């Protein structure tokens, strides 16, 4: 009996396997969230030096694999046992084994969130192409959410990869007909691009970043243009509510930017599981 047959015949095993895989990938997502912005910064410095005609200082090799994970406070290089998702954080009681510095709870949070959402994806779609795609989408959206929270950046390498992946899956109509997906990608980008320029012409300020356009384009490529009204409305309502709450209760100044990507990501996950009812609510077939 093949692995896929075994998983198909045992939904509980499939969901458990997805949760374990999500936990492992969640550990890697912590690396992505921490390192991708730094990799982008290194690349910008190199490009700036080149434009100035300077000889750029080549930094230490730094990517998603090298160097090995280490404590940012003391530089202690983590062993294999210290890299076990969730379990190592619990055993270490949330502290570095070398210097005792607190390890942020966000690390296990990302791992648990990835595990739970992966389990939900396979519970909803089963061990199918749609289930695998849902897990991939989840991983991208989790990483993009935390990167945007930290830096107000949505890396092109991730948003554009997500867009092309959605179109690829919809060659076979996994989530939407291909024509709807292509129109969704174009409409998603143009909608927020238009909002950006209208706001800038009216106020002279930038209301959002280009990464938001690309993320909505990617969601349009996954779910088709029919899902866009619900995604935009949900993201806008939640984003506005959070923004007002921050200003009222935490005295968050109006001039301080609030990332919009996390709310688009959350709305995208809702579209994944409730896309048809949400579209029907807006009278879109």
Provide structural commentary.
The structure is a single chain. The protein is mostly helical and 285 residues long. Helices cover 68% and strands 0% of the residues. It has helices at residues 3-9, 11-51, 87-91, 106-125, 129-151, 156-169, 178-203, 210-223, 228-249, 261-281. Helix 2 (11-51) packs across helix 5 and helix 5 (129-151) crosses helix 10.
What's the topology here?
Blueprint: H1 3-9, H2 11-51, H3 87-91, H4 106-125, H5 129-151, H6 156-169, H7 178-203, H8 210-223, H9 228-249, H10 261-281
Helix pairs in contact: 1-2, 2-4, 2-5, 4-5, 5-6, 5-10, 6-8, 7-8, 8-10, 9-10
Structure at a glance:
By secondary structure, the protein is mainly alpha-helical. It has ten helices and no strands.
Strand content: under 5%
* Rg, Cα atoms, Å: 21 Å
The amount of helix comes to 55-70%
How many beta-strand runs?
Answer: 0
Order of helices and strands: HHHHHHHHHH
Q: Give the terminus-to-terminus CA distance.
A: 41 Å
Uncertain runs are: none
Describe the oligomeric state of these chains in a short phrase: single chain
Overall body shape: globular
Please, how many helices? 10
> What is the residue-averaged pLDDT?
87
- Assign the structural class, choosing from mainly alpha, mainly beta, alpha/beta, alpha+beta, or little secondary structure: mainly alpha
Described by strand count, sense and barrel closure, the largest sheet is: none
